[in-house]
Model the fold of this input.
Amino acid sequence: MDKGAKKAQLRRCALCQKVGHNKSTCSEVTTPTIANKTARQPLKFFVHHVNLTNHQSPHLINLKEHKNNQYENVQPVAPTLPYRLPAGRQGRQEKNKDFYFYHDAPAPSFSPKIAKVANSPLVPIPENRGSRSLEKASDFKQKLQKIIRPKHLATAISLILIAIFLPQNTRTYYFDLKSTAEKISGNSTVGFSALQDSTSALMNGNIEQAQKSLTDALQNFDRAVTVLNSKHRLLQKIMAAVPILNNSITSRQKLVVSGQEISLGNTYLLKGLSDIRAASSTITKNLAVLGDHLKFSLPHYQTALAGLNQVDSDVLPLEYQSAFKEFRVLFKAFIGDLENMAKLNSAIQEIFGGRGLRRYLLIFQNPAELRPTGGFAGSFALVDIKDGNLIKIDIPAGGSYDLQGQLSKYVIPPMPLLLANKRWEFQDANWWPDFPASAKKMLWFYRHSRNLTADGVIAINADVLNRILSIIGPVAEQNRDLVISKTNALATIQDIVEFGPEKKANKPKQILSDLAPLFIDSFKKMKPQEVLPMLANLEEALQAKEIQAYFTDVNTQNTIKEFGWGGEVANISADQDYLFVVNTNIQGQKSDAKIKQTISHQAVVQPDGTILNSVVISREHTGQPDEKLYGQNNIDYLRIYVPEGSELARASGFTWPDEQKFRAPENWYEKDQMLAEVEKEIGFDKESGTRVTGEFGKTVFANWIITEPGKTSQVQFIYKLPFLAWPKTQESSLGSWAKIFQSESPASRYQLITQRQSGITSGFDSQIIYPDGWTPVWQDGEGVNLATNGAAIKTTELNSDKIWSLVMRKTD
Done:
């Protein structure tokens, strides 16, 4: 044997010290049994490359065995829950009568009111329903997620690959990249902070501060981009391929790019404002300049918003995450306002006389004496405007009654108005809740009174005065030693109009003529930071129908209608339910200021698919009998607008005024042509005295309700809708979107549209009740609670037009 040859090494067992085997195969080791619990146990170890076919989990085997019958009936239907899933939640659905995801919370419970029309009221959905098989599947899924975490696995594999394929100093690069990422976040955060300051200053009209903050923002974003583009591009690309790391990389990139886009948008907007400030020009020309710059800034803002929506706020330092989320929400609203401003630019040019002199009737409505468009039109102004400048404003001291002696036409008014006047006149022209129709009638009366035409009508409710005073502050009227503020304005003016010395001289509205120049002067002196709050308040007033507008220019009127500022009676489809409750105070003085109204609606679907509706209206008079103006009986001509073709079944609870108080028109008075065209007589219910007409594509039920101070009145209408809850031939009539919810079971769609009358905010609630064998699968709308046989809309304020939707499926 050579000296250099190595000696054979004999392996010995670590347990018995014998040669030829190891401890894992030692024969002296015994397997423990129940009788010999102290016997030596073999060491545990892993054996590689062993076929594990016979050791598969019984859960996996069961899932495979039952795969066909468990999932073959799953339909791509969404949603099939009796309530809406929270944003961002998804889940597998099982086809069963409950329509619940296995990992969702129990259905919300509620106690519905007893149905007044149906024999079977709403049945609340029972709690703690669920499927044991689904619960088991959920447990199994959670166990798998604990064993295998895809994000963690992908991260580990990617880091191994990075270590293998990149140079030896990868670890240094990796930690350096983390440091770089922190720098990017730091620069971006500081940049956004400066950008917020810039946007805030811009909205408040502080041009200098906006420009300074914008410069700071651009500098910080530039630093972030420099760091982002100059360091470790290869490592960034590799890390961007890792799911868990890609989110962080992408979020930081989107953050920086979005910041730059917002900065560019602000740059264009600042340029427009600076140009306006530097030039001494008219309002309409300034608006045109601003509109041109908006065209350039909006694309940058829109790109920025798309990027911000993809940013994970967790990449920011913790102290900035909440502020960033708020900024994203506010920025979205800011863009929406700018987009609307761009759309409105042409209409604004027209309205403010950018294309020539324009003349408008401003109608001041008092909701304390409620009328269909918002209130009694006791005062008005004639306004001439050109190039954004107020050329002339005329407010008659006698108010609307100044036109009585000048009116050349003698027409018979709508029958209910005979309680106040035997001749139809300007102050009662806002007879219809459809504002364009009432506005046209106002223009007709004005033209036949003063032989003058106007280019539009703008109705302003008294509540708008409080909005204006809350921004510009108190206004002092020195002749009367009077200070008007948001806390006393309406009551003070009302008191002067009704009981002031000017009323004896037939000039009750002189106070308005005296205050108008003071308000105009306050508008001219308005501070830049007050402009945006003023515009925001005006926009809110338009949405709430506190301001309504009609213009004779077709394009301008179409724009106003598009934004929902026209006060029209809504158009509906043939299979939509609709309700518009309209109050008209006639000879009830200012008692509506003390009225609280609630509307309870119920739709009961019969077994044959017909729908029977019930509407109960309650009016509580909170005034005192001895109160001036407000303590009078509230005399209300009540109309409800419902789907065209609805049939009245029963009406009850009404009280008529004394017939002797109605005035008879002269025999030679003419019938009003427009009134005849708008109100189509359908019928009259002799039992309740309810009048039935057709107006604006709706059926109208009308009657009287009188409420004394300290008391509550309640009336009810029961009527059948002109369509079925489910069509006789379902396949031909179901809307395409409703068919989504239809598998082999029939589906039914119900949708309710309600409109709010300007000048009154009513409480509203509703119930939609289906017969046995129907269950809800989808709903939409504010305050909806689902039941096993329908849905309930909880009591809410009807402060705007609203819509609710429900889809039901037949289960047997």
The mean pLDDT is 76. The chain has three domains: 157-351, 358-560, 577-658+679-810.
